[in-house]
Amino acid sequence: MTQDLALFGGVPVRKKPFPVWPRYTHAIRHSVEQTLAEDQWGIGSQTIERFEKAFARFQDADHCLAINSGTSALWVALKAAGVQAGDEVIIPPYTFIATGAAVLMANAVPVFVDVEEDTFNLDPGLLEAAITDKTRAIVPVHIGGNPAHLDRILAVAEKHGLPVVEDAAQAHGAEWKGTRVGALGIGGIFSFQSSKNMSAGEGGAIVSNDAAFMDACYSYYNCGRVPGGDWYEHHRLGGNFRMTSVAAAMLLPQLETIEQEMALREQHRARLDAWVESLPGLSPLRTYPEVTRSANHLYLFRYHSDQFQGIPRDVFLRAMQAEGIFTYVGYTPLYRERLFIVNTREYPWLKGRHYSNVQLPVCERIATEEAVWLKQNVLLGSEEDVRDIQRALEKVTTAMRSDPGRFLSLTEA
Ligand SMILES: *Cc1c(COP(=O)(O)O)cnc(C)c1O
User: Domains in the chain and their CATH numbers?
Assistant: First the structure.
């Protein structure tokens, strides 16, 4: 027998919270105390240097620059990749605002290329048609920590002589054909903001195998200074985007625990994917066969209202939340953000760009109808936690299919 849904006054599947994230450990406390007591707090910090070396190694990259946020890392990387005023930068519309904001901060023009419905990643088949003589860079986003199709994107980029900057803000440790993401194009960026798989509260990094690119990054992130130059010698318009040693001290011990967390995320995602696949009306996302490891930052899947007599996604989410499983809608298409109602006095280089005319059908559909998000901490719980999610998914979808009218009446305002 099916129990009545919590949405209708029944007993919820679960009341317990999921694991707290980020996690405060003794190792982090010790590392921070030691750094504060014994190291420089900023410039000259050995801790920062150690972190840069360790994170470069972790991402299979030759170089790493520790930065104060993912957003500034992306601005720095775009500038170092050669993006200048009025240039176009291709990005997907299904991403965090920072991907688009960093392009605007570089006085460049975001050009949106639609995503795929089953990966939520940039559709490589649509990429080439978006390239113009003004295109200066391509920024694929590894959404939810699940790598975009790097081979196809890099092939198009190479054909047109364009640099690829990976937005790997959500993809710590993810792999493409056995190599960690980040340095597969000219370079890539990571975020260590609170919600990410590694966190210093705030923070970011750029990784790359290209020494000249990294020298340019150093300059943009460090007040326009150049490696080997005098301290008061400024070659470019750069800022102070340096990381503090405390942030680096918080991150170093996490490189010791992330493997274990990644394994847990993988195991739990596989289980949830199989479950979601088995439930009519829901579908899991796909990972390309070339992805030897996903970072599984968020747990994302799709809801198909046409298989529930048109019950909208919001009702499904409400029913899941009532069962004690926090699910939410995630991103809206980036070009629909108010920011893109262009103010040509503030952004004169966007004159003639009418983002209100942009309409990318897959992004629109997944953002407004289909995508369902679970926060990353749900993947870090116990088997029991995963079973609760499975039970709630089954309980809610079964009830919705057996008595859709009851749910549809909820939507009549
Ligand atoms: C978090 C995030 C960023 C920005 O990182 P911050 O550290 O918050 O500035 C950029 N891109 C994506 C896809 C992100 O998820």
Answer: 2-7+257-412 (3.90.1150.10), 26-255 (3.40.640.10)
